[in-house]
UniProtKB/TrEMBL annotation:
Membrane topology: Multi-pass membrane protein
InterPro entries given in the database record: ABC-2_transporter_component, ABC2_TM, ABC_2_transport
Keyword tags: Cell membrane, Membrane, Transmembrane, Transmembrane helix
The protein's name in its UniProt record: Uncharacterized protein
Gene3D superfamilies documented for this protein: abc type-2 transporter like domain (3.40.1710.10)
Lineage: Bacteria, Pseudomonadati, Pseudomonadota, Betaproteobacteria, Burkholderiales
Keyword Membrane assigned: yes
Localization, UniProt: Cell membrane
Keyword Metal-binding: no
Length: 394
């Protein structure tokens, strides 16, 4: 019997995988609706874009018209919600500890008098640093509100004493910094986090799916039937299997990009074709690494453990939540060894920064290396998995 060509062998393996998916609901979920559901949940979670109505307690020890006006002024910020005045400071701190408030603003006694006389005045803002994002937003917006309120009060006092408005304004704000946010100027968390977290989910499912698709052949001792379907071609055996598992994930990734661009208005500042190609390279890279992992592990359980070790914390080392340059050298090395890191860098450059192609070619080349190099070991991996001693283990 003639050995089938590569394309014919790949098609035969793909058909075999599709039959397996039709008869295994759990496997079908892993490949299709489970990752889709996770990405949809992430997109829905951050659909508001910015944190809204963060609860702030105001301990007003002055109880004056000016202190009440300040509380109302702060409460006008869309990100903040002033939840009234607590009975005392201990009650307010207890509310922060219980998670009922993100922060506490203490207005000291004599606040109005000091403000009118120009005496030194101090407000104290306490925030729950464990809620780092919410605390950062609250600190920034309270600071802006207090600065504007203070400047307005001083301007009113100066003009009431007969000073010209223009002169008074110059005295209140003699130096005005020109602060310009270059990328994601609205500080929108949907545009900032959803593409990155979506990619983190897709890369995790890509590696887990690869390990499961190959590892179940080892567990069920069906490696011989799998290789027979491929006509003894190791490359076709692996490629046909992974094509069935990875194509849905690629569609989910591209669908996420399309949703954010077309429905949510987050335009790609750089090259959309390069960004879409990078999604394909990222999925292929994690599949190739997963193939290497399960081949070396020669077992489903150990392969899944290794895949979890690699992919689950990958977002932490990706440079989105914490800058890679600020990490210890060991962490920087681990970051560079993860495909997700290079994809997230390329995605930021193309989606937000509008970088030229040449700037992203380094990250693209690394992704391509992750996607291609493990395939040179494919024949050896298949020979390793074809040993009966590796079969029948969980």
């Amino acid at each position: 019997m003639d050995r089938p060509g590569f394309t014919e062998a790949l098609r035969a393996v793909a058909h075999r995988e599709l039959r397996a998916l039709r008869h295994d609901g759990w496997l079908l979920a892993l490949v299709t609706w489970w990752p889709l559901l996770m990405v949809v949940v992430v997109a829905a979670t951050f659909s508001a874009g910015l944190p809204r109505d963060l609860p702030l307690r105001v301990a007003d020890h002055d109880r004056s018209a000016t202190s009440r006006q300040l509380a109302r002024f702060i409460g006008q910020a869309p990100t903040l919600r002033v939840d009234g005045s607590p009975a005392d400071d201990s009650d307010a701190f207890a509310a922060v500890r219980r998670g009922e408030a993100v922060g506490l603003l203490v207005v000291p006694e004599g606040f109005e008098r000091r403000l009118r006389t120009g005496s030194p005045n101090a407000l104290q803002l306490f925030v729950n640093g464990q809620l780092s994002t919410a605390a950062s937003v609250m600190q920034s917006d309270v600071q802006v509100a207090v600065t504007l309120f203070s400047a307005g009060a001083e301007l009113q006092i100066r003009t009431a004493h007969g000073e010209a408005a223009a002169t008074a304004l110059g005295a209140v704000e003699p130096l005005r910094p020109g602060l310009v946010t270059l990328f994601n100027g609205a500080m929108n968390y949907e545009g900032f986090l959803v593409p990155a977290l979506g990619a983190a989910l897709v890369q995790m499912f890509a590696m887990f799916t690869t390990v499961v698709l190959i590892g179940r052949e080892l567990r069920e001792a069906t490696v011989s039937a799998w290789l027979a379907a491929a006509g003894g071609r190791p490359g076709a055996a692996l490629a046909g299997k992974l094509a069935v598992g990875m194509l849905p994930l690629l569609v989910i990734g591209w669908g996420l990009v399309g949703w954010l661009v077309l429905a949510r208005g987050f335009a790609v500042a750089g090259s959309l074709p390069l960004l879409l190609a990078a999604w394909g390279a990222m999925v292929a890279a994690n599949a190739a690494v997963g193939m290497l992992v399960v081949g070396l592990a020669s077992g489903l359980r150990l392969g899944l453990s290794a895949a979890g070790f690699i992919t689950s914390p990958a977002f932490t080392y990706g440079g989105i939540a914490f800058p890679v340059a600020a990490m210890p050298l060991l962490a920087q090395g681990w970051s560079a060894a993860l495909p997700l890191t290079h994809f997230l860098r390329l995605q930021s450059e193309q989606w937000w920064m509008g970088a030229p192609w040449a700037v992203s070619m380094g990250s693209a080349a690394v992704l391509a290396g992750f996607a291609v190099l493990p395939w040179f070991a494919a024949p050896a991996l298949v020979r390793r998995m074809a040993r009966p001693a590796a079969w029948g283990h969980s």
